[in-house]
Amino acid sequence: MSTLLEVRDLSVRFGQTTAVDGISFDLEKGASLGIVGESGSGKSVTCRALMRLLPPAAKISGSALYDGADLLQMPLPQLNQIRGKRIAMIFQSPASHLDPLMRIGDQVAETLRKHTQMRGQEIRDEVLRLLDVVRIPDPARWARAYPHQLSGGMKQRAMIAGALACQPDLLLADEPTTALDATVQKSVLDLLAQLRREQNLSMIFVSHDLGAVARVCDDLLVMRRSKLMESGPVSRVIDAPQHDYTRKLIASHPDRLTLRPVAEASTGAPLIEGQGLRIRYGGRSLADLIAGREGGFVAVQNADLAVRPGETVGIVGESGSGKSTLARSLVGLVKPQRGTVCFDGTPADPTGKGRVAYLREVQLIYQHPYEALSPRMTVARAIAEPLRRHRLCPPREVKDKVADLMEQVGIPTKLADRYPGQLSGGECQRVAIARALAFDPKVLIADEVTSALDVTLQAQVMDLLLKLQKDRGLTMIFISHDLGVIRRLCNSVIVMRQGQIVESGPTGAVFDNPREAYTRQLIDAIPHLHAGAA
Amino acid sequence: MNTLRFIAFRLLQAIPVLLGVSIITFILMAATPGDPVRLLVGDRASPETIALVRDRYGLDDPILFQYFTYVKNLIVGDLGASLRYRVPVSQLIAQHYPVTLFLVIYTIVLTLPPVVFLAVWSAKRQNGPADQVIRMLGVLGLAVPVFWLALLFARFFGVTLGWFPVSGFGETVPDHFMHLFLPALSTAIWVVPILVRTLRSALLDEMNRDYVLTGHSKGLGERQIFRTHVFPNSVLPTLNLFAVIVAYLLGGSVIVETVYAVPGMGKLMVDSILARDYFVVQGATLVFALTTILVMLAVDLLSALIDPRVAP
């Protein structure tokens, strides 16, 4: 096999900061290389530097020989002959990387118009063929659709179709499955693996998910803090990691994670209970009224859930299944149209009277830690806010209480005066957890708290939650689209789909013996770490 | 079919709006000091004459009764008659409306090319010298009051240089273009900077979008990405502001038409208010309101045409 791409001493600097520091690797024709690392490790920048897709502020040095020509030095018109034609790229969030005003078919055709002699009907036929290759059903119909009419998975497929249009030699995939649900993620990965085999496509696959990389790639680069840590065949790296960081990365994967055992749930009466909850967004407009339609959008239908003291209940489902909405109704952020919420055996009204007292017992932690904290409030002030506002302790003791809470969630004291913008995602999430714990709640609802975090941080936060639950006897509702996480953390699980609860029961029973085909599908999609899957 | 239903529904919504507009103008006119009959018959008329005229126009009925009579006539399409000219209001409007419409469209035609050119120019050279000059000129254009600029233009181009007529509307179409050039220009100078600023910031926003990166990764080249992706996406926010400005131009015609003595709706409106010509003011206001509603509707339809996410 011949070498397709030869990268030597690739460095990228943004002003004072070095984003990529002297990376070298070779890519054989038809090979597939995975680059893993946490956010900020420079893996995406490496990928984009090869195509010179970085903002003008980036200073790139080193060389990247492709077919004997240096991608980093060649003039732009020459590079534009390679971009899209010989080297194509797909991105993390297909939603924002497609032009919202242009039909899918036209966006796929763009590359053909630019790089081939095809015109008119020929292009239309080729577009339909490409959409069929990426397994978009009914290509003729979806070619005429606009991006917002497609689901996330379909959008990513359309992106792939556009990238494959000119039969490139090399596909750069920059976290192509990160923004997708587990089931969709699996199907896109399968598609990429299949395309590799059938079209002899070389690929560089960037991801923070070792499981995803193992599914598609033969070779692996592990990056950390802009440096190359380790490289080698996937199976070798996973089975016999040589670097400490790689070992940590592998150990953090939900599949390999060793967590403290989940606390046994009591068998008493439910602590928090929702009965027949139905939640609707959007009111009836005048037009709906005249047409006799109900209007709006039903996010949750007739959901029942009961959580016993000390129990951890997981709610899973893909995006849009209503799981977050259900959680929000339990803390009164949305008002259910029908149904009741009971706390400790008595009916509670999370949106109305008694809201303040109720919220002291039931607290929600949000998905995006940066957005959940005020950017103008220091860590200490953010944690102290509920203590002061609810007068939970005498003003003199606030400071000690804050220090105590920070210790419990493992935030170093020196971070007390920092602003959220100066913290990492994991640290921010800890602050958000400490703020929720300031109330000394009985119930903690965690809404996708680990989704925005890297695997290593994810493992730490999960461990923290388990520890807190054990120490404080917390009751938890844990919402996630990641069944791998739920399995490690929860006593029982609720599976939601399109606003309805399709299955629920003890975690073991649901995982070993799913009753619904949909649950089975979700379980099959859990990314596993077996070496050399490709 | 959906579009037709949307249009029908929006026109239906216009009815309560127009009703509200008519109530407010009616009350305002009734509350304004001054008596139309006094102005009509002159200072030396006898009390008997005044009473006679008052009775004939129904002006001694209770105000509520007067309003309902007015609305009743409105439903059958009768806008009433001018107290001053003694011709139907509809005839007056038919005379004056095309002039204002001509002026507004002329202003838009003078506005759009420089807006697109200047916005693209300054967005492509963000914070460069050209961008700074365009910004400064824009502030200047916004800061100078329209009526003052109109007076200066009339003095300089009309009187000193004698290039353009300083008043009136002219007889033939080329005449119209000559007569309305200065009024349209002085309005455009105020409108252009606003639209340039919005379009420029929209262009800059869109130039940093992810789909631009996709375009680069396809090897499309700067120019093609700008033309096919960035520009269409940037037009949308500007379009909505444009609708508001067109509505404003209709109202703003009062100023330039007065300065340049253009016989349009604005001038008719001002003269009628001064003469307490109730029905003309009423009719003109309703026509202004209806035009605004139609402009908004047209822009909404246009947005839906450009942006598939906006369902009409």
From TrEMBL, chain A:
The keyword Flavoprotein does not apply. GO terms for molecular function: ATP binding; ATP hydrolysis activity. It is a peripheral membrane protein. It comes from the Bacteria. SMART domains: AAA. The keyword Transmembrane does not apply. Pfam families: ABC_tran, oligo_HPY. Keywords: ATP-binding, Cell membrane, Membrane, Nucleotide-binding, Transport. Gene3D superfamilies: P-loop containing nucleotide triphosphate hydrolases (3.40.50.300). One of its GO terms (cellular component) is plasma membrane. One of its GO terms (biological process) is peptide transport. Residues 5-250, 284-523 form the ABC transporter domain. It is found in: Cell inner membrane. SUPFAM superfamilies: P-loop containing nucleoside triphosphate hydrolases. Its main location: membrane. Belongs to the ABC transporter superfamily. PANTHER family: DIPEPTIDE TRANSPORT ATP-BINDING PROTEIN DPPD, OLIGOPEPTIDE TRANSPORT ATP-BINDING PROTEIN APPD. This is Peptide/nickel transport system ATP-binding protein. It comes from Sulfitobacter delicatus. The lineage of its organism: Bacteria, Pseudomonadati, Pseudomonadota, Alphaproteobacteria, Rhodobacterales.
Automatic annotation (TrEMBL), chain B:
It is a multi-pass membrane protein. Pfam families: BPD_transp_1 (PF00528), BPD_transp_1_N (PF19300). One of its GO terms (biological process) is transmembrane transport. InterPro entries: BPD_transp_1_N, MetI-like, MetI-like_sf. The keyword Cell membrane applies. The chain crosses the membrane at residues 7-31, 99-121, 133-157, 177-199, 241-263, 283-306. Residues 97-303 form the ABC transmembrane type-1 domain. The keyword Transcription does not apply. It is found in: Cell membrane. It comes from the Bacteria. Keywords: Cell membrane, Membrane, Transmembrane, Transmembrane helix, Transport. Coiled coil: none annotated. GO terms for cellular component: plasma membrane. CDD domains: TM_PBP2. Its main location: membrane. Belongs to the binding-protein-dependent transport system permease family. This is Peptide/nickel transport system permease protein. It comes from Sulfitobacter delicatus.
